[in-house]
Amino acid sequence: MSQDDENNAYWSANVRLIMINLAIWALVSFGFGIVLRPLLSGISVGGTDLGFWFAQQGSILVFLALIFFYAWRMNKLDQEHGVDEE
């Protein structure tokens, strides 16, 4: 495989990972916190409804989890493509 093909494969995997993370974050923050909030209002979490919880805390916690997942997955991706920091 040529260097250009390897660079394109690395960049493609990186962009795919970013798009997946952004889609999850959008679903949780916009979808669960705003659009689907009326459907989630009957489910109680910590004394409040689930839609309100996602809007106030859930989307932030999911965002933090996505940051750690992205860092972990990028380290593995760097190792797979030989561009990791030692």
UniProtKB/TrEMBL annotation:
> What does UniProt give as the signal peptide span?
none
Q: Which UniProt keywords apply?
A: Membrane, Transmembrane, Transmembrane helix
Entry keyword Calcium: no
Q: Where is the Sodium symporter small subunit domain?
A: 8-84
Q: Does the keyword Flavoprotein apply?
A: no
Top-level taxon of origin = Bacteria
Give the stretches traversing the membrane.
20-40, 52-72
- Note the Pfam families from the entry: DUF4212
Q: Which NCBIfam families match?
A: Na_symport_sm
Mind telling me what this protein is named?
Sodium symporter small subunit domain-containing protein
